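Researcher: Structure for this, please.
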Amino acid sequence: MALRESAFSGACVSGLHTLSWALVFPSFWFLDRLLAGCKSTTSERRERRDQECYLRPLSVLFGSLAFLLLFLLWAPVALLGFLLWAPLQCARRPFRYHRGAPSLRADERNAGWRSTGRVSLGFATANLCLLPDSLARFNNLSHTQRRATAIGGSIVQGVTRPHIRIYVDSPSSCGTGTLSPSSSLLASSASSHNAPGGCYGATQTTQALPPAAAVAVAVAAGDPSSTSSEEENPQDDDVVIIVAPSSSSSTPSSPGGGSVVTATTCHNDDDANVANSNQNSSLPDVRVVCVDADTGVGVATGGGVGVASGVGVASGVGVASKGRHPPRALGRSGATRVETDIPMEVSAMFPPGVDLLCLQEVFDQRAAERLCSSLAPLYGHVLYDVGVYGCAAGCGAFKFFNSGLLVASRLPLVDAQYHCFPNARGEDALAAKGLLCVKVLIKLPDQGSQRMVGYFNCTHLHAPEGDGAVRYEQLNMVLKWIDEFQEAHSEEGEMVLFDVLCGDFNFDNCSPDDVLEQKHSVFNQYRDPCRVGPGQEKPWVIGTLLEQPTLYEEDVRTPDNLQRTLEQEDLRRQYLSPPVARGGGATTCHEEGRPWIGRRLDYVLYRESTTAKNTHAEVEEFTYVTQLAGLTDHVPVGLRLAVSLPTDEP
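Model: Predicted structure, token format:
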């Protein structure tokens, strides 16, 4: 389908639509405020309790009467506008398209793709619950417009930061208290009054490493001398800090006999309940990783939350030495090192360099426009307001809301197509949930004449529990529509590098109530990096659905607090939704000797059967993101794929 900025083909029809919605909107807004005044979030109730606000009942009463009166007075005008608005939906395209020149530069990892033979691509998905304010409050969220602006800003801040890694060669010498984000790399926000250098909330701390630990620093920004192997060479623009065992006596030491690491961080202590931008949003991505020198297996002791500013350099320790491989595990999920088969971390910020972003539940049109504006400085291509309204053919009941899908891309869009699920029922039938298929053009430095493309597919499945048969049928439609889209838009001679399917599937791989969906053939075609098989997750899996009543508890209300909570099994089981038993009710998929796992509704899947011959995709990193703490009831997830190209390609 043609990608045009307006959802309508002509200016006249677009003008009539704008006029009709202008007549409807005041009545819609009055009704929204009427309902919102009667429903409070737990944060608002706690705030009123602390302030002992005895006038709240009177405020609600008179406010409700005022909005009800205004709604009734405007209702006749709104009815006329609705009678004009509804027929115009037949002429509407199923999405709006923003295209512009980005003003911000994100992490570029493919500058040396010809020498490495690999292309690195980042994907992320998040459910934002950007409903009209009155409906969002039933999910214990409020201030939809402010949340939309804050979410967009947080995403951009996270994605545009540099990529820094710290490797520690011996896991035994870097326990959780050695280089954790809350100790050496993250200064306590309580000490913000000691901020030096004009950086608000900044502190400077000195942390001693264990005895016999030496520190080597490598800044790998395209330096070919650091290693002779592509696998050992960090990505472009990465800053790598390696902490390795050494017996050298020349290593700078602390009074306790350990090497000294000085860290400087900046914090923003603004309240996260309404508009939470990450308190470390301006910082590079710093990852402290304990790497076993023999096995190459490692576990991170921190994620994306600090800047090492003064690291001692050990004599006799090589920089990114030959034979040193990236860690096989990032993050503390409770799994043992040998069980963590792919690099995984819990990060307080979005991964740097995300190329394609899939967002769900962006139902509110004004929030979608705000989100699009916030993302535009980084993502030059955005599809939003995706879906249909009214009585669209093949969509079942009358649709009051669109699909809620939004796709933001740093890569140029070639084609896009939307399909609406016709089998929705209950409250989900009010929204035009469906599938959005996008074809993107991959542009690389010194690419030559070879055309490279990728397919990105986003969906949001049926929500009510107990309706597994509905979701199962929707997955059948998803596979069928994806195949039809790719067949219709493929061109001879182009190289397909990736085929990704992501979104909120509204079922997990643990709940007995979801056993039907767990066995769907979609998992035979697409690879799920978190899954072992039907009903069995990998031991490092955490979960992505937060318990709504506890969204504003201290342990989860900020990105750093939520990060620490997810890393500790005893804490995360208090704040993540548990698996669902047959017929409803909580259960567990906890196995003896393995950590507790919450519901994982958000997926990023990929397949290689439809990509170019002799290409191979490998998971470079899987990330749980806590940057949107207090802004949504889901934990976003990110996936980075490294695609190896055929060796005979020019």
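Researcher: Any notable elements?
Model: The CA atoms of residues 228 and 296 lie 18 Å apart. DSSP finds twelve helices and 23 strands in the chain.
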